Amino acid sequence: MLAFAVRATLRDFGFDAAGDVPDGVTVVLGPSGAGKSTLLRFIAGLQRPDAGTIVLGDRTLCDVARGIWVPPEHRNVGVVFQEYALFPHLSVAANVAYGLRARALPAADRNRRVDRALAMLDIASLAPENVTRLSGGQRQRVALARALAIEPAALLLDEPLSALDPVTRERVRGELGTLFASLAIPILLVTHDDADREAFGHRTLHLARGHVAA
């Protein structure tokens, strides 16, 4: 379970939202500028709220009043950005391993996690390839593998299919549905696509100008 109750003054409005996210997929909906990506940034630790709390399982990630702030690299939260944010000078395997290096894991454990994540996304054969040579669908899988390699306690996805062409998007959507069903963790997926909502949206969270809408 992921629980958040955060407040912050943003450029265009005041963000003040609270909610509980159980295991499985929760689709985050709302118009452009509603604060959907900002919510993910708060949970990931990439942006600090002015007030409030974020709790993942039995672990407090943020409690402004108590001075608790767990930095992003120690939150065990996987994040997939809209643009994937892969390193063009690194191989597929090195990109997937990147988040593990900050955790100072032994090489054998790091390699095991990378191999497992690559196999989970069916891209083990691409391990030595440079990411610049990959298709959009393959890069998307690499970004997901990197997020899953840390064995996250929660997964955040910001428009993960928006960069794909329609045919690839439809195929990957089905693959993601199968993958998500195998993960017993809270998953927040931001999207503007009604097809994503229909495919994944067993639960939805609507944001409007930084507030959870009914």
What does this structure look like?
- This protein has 214 residues and is an alpha/beta fold.
- It has a domain at 87-152.
- Helix content is 33%, strand content 27%.
- It has helices at residues 36-44, 92-101, 107-120, 136-149, 166-181, 194-200, and strands at 2-9, 14-21, 24-29, 51-56, 59-63, 68-69, 77-80, 154-158, 186-190, 203-208, 211-213.
- The protein has a six-stranded mixed β-sheet, sandwiched between helices.
- A hairpin with a 4-residue loop joins strand 5 (59-63) and strand 6 (68-69).
- It is globular.
- The protein starts with a strand and ends with a strand.
- The mean pLDDT is 90.
Summarize the topology.
Elements: E1 2-9, E2 14-21, E3 24-29, H1 36-44, E4 51-56, E5 59-63, E6 68-69, E7 77-80, H2 92-101, H3 107-120, H4 136-149, E8 154-158, H5 166-181, E9 186-190, H6 194-200, E10 203-208, E11 211-213
Parallel strand pairs: 3-9, 3-10, 7-8, 8-9
Antiparallel strand pairs: 1-2, 1-4, 4-5, 5-6, 10-11
Helix pairs in contact: 2-3, 2-4, 3-4
